[in-house]
Amino acid sequence: MMLQALVSTLPVYVFFAIGFWLRAKGALRPEDDRPLLQLAMDVAYPCLIFYSIMRYMALEADPRIAGIGFSLQAAACGFAEMAIGVAAAWLVARALRLRIGSGLRTFTLTAGMQNYAYFVIPIVQMLFSASGDPTLGVLFIHNVGCEVFVWSLGVILMQGNIRALDMGVFLRGPLLAVVVSVLLAWTGWGSYVAQPPVMKAAEMIGAIATPVSLILFGCFMRDMLASFVWQPRMLLSGVAARLLITPSLIVLLAWLLPVDPLIKRIMVIQSAIPSGVIPVMLAKRFGGRPEVGTQILLSTTLCSFLTLPVWLAVGNAFVVHIFGS
Prior knowledge:
Distance between the termini: 13 Å
Number of domains: 1
CATH topology: Na+/H+ antiporter like fold
Strand content: under 5%
CATH architecture: Up-down Bundle
Oligomer: single chain
Number of strands: 0
CATH class: Mainly Alpha
Structural class: mainly alpha
Number of helices: 14
Largest sheet: none
Mean pLDDT: 85
């Protein structure tokens, strides 16, 4: 089981390594990042979302995920996971005696928020590739809750002021793609829109989202190493909050909640995902301590190579069937 979990997560780190190597060789330069990131985030990722949701909620109309109640449950779980992670990270930050100005907000958000999209997509694709398995579509519905948390409470917590909240962030391509796709499925219009030419185009364009994004993340890791500062206490605390304390709480929540096993699958996987880059970006924009976030981002990403398979195996044993499904 542990070996299967390790093999399932290995492609993510392979793409990271490719991006790291391309940046180190100068083959992919920093000025190339912006157009590639826009291609992945604003074009390919929304296409992947549209294809996955339309396939399982409109065309195949999987009764397990087609209802409004299911979607609301999945999104609520995504929001709750973020809230639990941030609360756990805040307690750890207070134990470190961090204060506003010394990294409290940046530590809390970076150690509390997982890389809920691009890191998770290839893992789900590897684990649940069987024909008719709707888990990938469930992931995108679940991530609505994550997006809402990040761009509402996440922004407010980093800035320390509700006036920092910009409603324009809710018009981001991925979130709009989920909302539009789900509404089309709920209203019955999805079967008319999701015709073969549209679906094939969405599938082909969406296929590049994951590899491009992971390679770019590997490039960012290479750039971050240039300004990396070794602070053992901060690093170890970030790893403990993100990869030990938070997973145990979310796995326990998944075990307790009376939600569909498809949602439990996503909760178990999301619980063990390392920190995302978005909190570091928020720290740069709203006057946080991006160097603190960078340390936690790099350390949790590297350590997750060992911890992620462990938590997947724990979730498979005690919460929901993951392997061999």
